[in-house]
Design brief:
Layout: H1 4-16, H2 18-31, H3 33-39, E1 44-45, H4 46-53, H5 57-69, E2 73-78, E3 81-86, H6 88-94, H7 103-117, H8 120-126, H9 131-135, H10 142-146, H11 150-172, E4 182-186, H12 192-200, E5 205-210, H13 212-221, E6 230-234, E7 245-251, H14 259-272, E8 273-283, H15 294-306, H16 314-321, E9 328-332, E10 339-344
Parallel strand pairs: 4-5, 4-7, 5-6, 7-8
Antiparallel strand pairs: 1-3, 2-3, 8-10, 9-10
Helix pairs in contact: 2-7, 4-5, 7-11, 11-12
């Protein structure tokens, strides 16, 4: 039996080594480990993995064994030789061909989010995001920094598409949205959530409203063949006229912005919203006291290092929505990463 001090020290080491775990996952994605094993006809020895990835035999074996301990890979010993294959988790979420692949979002986190988190202490001191220190890019215009290159923008958009492929159905089903036939997804990016919406509510039509470079990228790289219920419109939701709709969706939008900017946006939505219409806010909700869940607290710190905003409690969203003209506010926990807040005009 270990002493309480031993248990505390083990917990400390787990927390301290968390970044190493992330880097094992990120590096295996970056190197193509999960894609290679998904495409292989059977398990591969570490030397063969190294040869195909053009990586060092020593480093490859160490990385593969760490992935086994993290339950990302499985290992079998055949004729005295260890061979590796994907676990179900890796086949589903980590290989590019996986049915619910999250690879693009993980690569975005590895290349961008991780770099910003290296400056968390500065972000806490200064109260602002860290794009300037991490990438030399000023962040006065937030999405100019986030979409600082075409490749970065496409990676982020594909990452969001992956997120909604897993989480979109549950948040859109949290409330019955069938009374809202005309929906506008503000900041709807690639249209991934719009696709989930029309699949769940076949009678609805969705307009995806986003800045011109995002709409143009969506139309160039994301397929909407035969889907007439989804349309795109270019514009800045802080300055340009908003499409008229019965329901406005704000999915992972309000958490990007300060309370003041959220209030401005919600007032503009209220002005454009049809009588009896509403707004659906999709965010990861903090507990009432703000001290959990841990994942949402980490997301909120991520908003500090990458945006102007934060994650909020249900009461804080009510405090934003009611003064903007949406007094009837209902919140639903989904049991997943994201929750739903429906407010009626």
């Amino acid at each position: 039996m270990g002493s309480p001090e031993d248990q505390a020290y083990r917990l400390l080491k787990e927390h301290c080594h968390g970044f190493m775990v992330s880097q094992v996952l990120f590096s295996a994605c970056e190197l193509g480990v999960f894609d290679l094993l998904a495409e292989a006809p059977g398990p591969l020895a570490s030397a063969e993995v190294a040869a195909r990835l053009a990586s060092s035999p020593r480093g490859t074996e160490q990385l593969l064994d760490a992935c086994v301990s993290l339950k990302l890979l499985q290992v079998d010993v055949r004729r005295g030789k260890a061979v590796y294959g994907n676990t179900e988790l890796a086949s589903t979420y980590l290989a590019r061909t996986g049915p619910r692949s999250q690879q693009n979002m993980l690569l975005y986190m590895a290349r961008t989010t991780y770099a910003c988190w290296g400056h968390l202490a500065e972000a806490v001191r200064e109260g602002r995001n860290q794009y300037l220190k991490a990438f030399g890019v000023p962040a006065e215009q937030l999405f100019t920094a986030i979409y600082r290159s075409e490749a970065e923008q496409l990676l982020f958009m594909r990452g969001l598409q992956e997120v909604w492929s897993v989480c979109g159905g549950s948040v859109l089903a949290a409330f019955d949205l069938s009374p809202f036939p005309l929906i506008c997804d503000l900041g709807g990016c690639s249209g991934a959530l719009a696709k989930e919406c029309v699949a769940l509510y076949p009678a609805c039509r969705v307009t995806v409203f986003d800045i011109p470079e995002v709409v143009q990228m969506a139309e160039k790289h994301f397929s909407f063949a035969g889907e007439e219920r989804i349309s795109f419109r270019e514009g800045d939701f802080f300055t340009d006229p908003l499409p008229h709709a019965d329901l406005y969706i704000l999915a992972r939008v309000l958490h990007d912005w300060s309370d003041e900017k959220c209030s401005q946006l919600l007032a503009r939505i209220h002005h454009a919203c049809k009588a009896g219409g509403g707004v659906l806010v999709i965010e990861s909700l903090l507990d009432p006291d703000g001290r959990g869940p841990l994942t949402t607290q980490l997301y909120s710190l991520n908003m500090l290092v990458q945006t102007e905003g934060r994650e909020r409690t249900a009461a804080q969203y009510r405090a934003l929505l009611a003064p903007a003209g949406f007094p009837r506010v209902h919140c639903r926990r989904t049991g997943g990463t994201y929750d739903a807040v429906l407010a009626r005009k």
